Amino acid sequence: MSALISIKNVTKKFKDLTVLDGVNLEINSGEIVYVIGKSGSGKSVLLKNMIRLFKPDEGEIHIDGLDIFKLDEKELIEFRKKTGVLFQMAALFDSLTVFDNVSFTLRRFTKYSKSEIKDIVDEKLALVGLRGYENSWPASLSIGMQKRVGLARAIAMEPKIIFCDEPTTGVDPLLGAAVDDLIKKLNRELGVTVMVISHDMESTFRVAHRVAMLYNGKFEFTGTTEELKNNDNPIVRQFVTGSAHGPMSVI
Length: 251
Ligand SMILES: Nc1ncnc2c1ncn2[C@@H]1O[C@H](COP(=O)(O)OP(=O)(O)O)[C@@H](O)[C@H]1O
Ligand SMILES: [Mg+2]
Description:
The protein is an alpha/beta fold. The protein has one domain: Rossmann fold (3-Layer(aba) Sandwich). About 40% of the residues lie in helices and about 25% in strands. It contains 9 helices and 10 strands. The strands form 2 sheets. Strands 6-7-8-3-9-10 form a 6-stranded mixed sheet, with helices on both faces. A 4-stranded antiparallel sheet has the order 2-1-4-5, covered by helices on one side. The longest helix is centred in the C-terminal third of the chain and has 18 residues, at about 175-190. The model has no long low-confidence stretch (mean pLDDT about 95). The site of adenosine-5'-diphosphate (ADP) has 10 residues, from helix 1.
């Protein structure tokens, strides 16, 4: 069976800076894959390529049979329906209520009636434990609740795939664990394939099926969490143990 997501030889440069230098990664249906790496290693840039915010200088990205940089209008909508995104710090629309945030893409990309949309939003909010918060404003919610709304929005279209950028960064450990559990639950109960960008090792070991570590524009390591734990590459070890000393420069 071919992979659900296939990143082929992707290179992304900003002027003289080569952020991604021919990266390759395949993600299978139903997997939770963590892309880890230190700050500035290109994790968010990779994710932005995958959702078409950036276009690679070289290489291709295939998602569920679509070459995502060669889509016609109809395929672009299909692509948007297949993928949900949880941005760093949730990135909710502040001027929209929780209901309007979660229903945003439904109203934009589907022909569902008002009552159908209400049912979908109710269901997604229940799934993330926020039933009854439809009329709240994002600013009135805790960061953890905002992340939950962000996840409800990401799954509103019942995508096959969700992309999450640093879901546990900037939240306390308890909240981080709750967000982790929610990602696992969505994977388990909806069968959704998840790609998470993170530098949180605790979260990585708790949630990931497979891990890929970005370093100097390439994947220095790709494997299971068990393989990550036992890997003796000094660069990988340094990152996993969070040591200031080792081959990888810290700043
Ligand atoms: N739009 C941009 N223009 C120029 N450089 C960028 C842009 N976005 C990211 N970069 C650079 O790419 C590198 C990787 O950034 P990023 O992917 O955000 O790192 P992280 O792994 O922390 O998510 C950084 O050096 C950053 O400054
Ligand atoms: Mg980032």
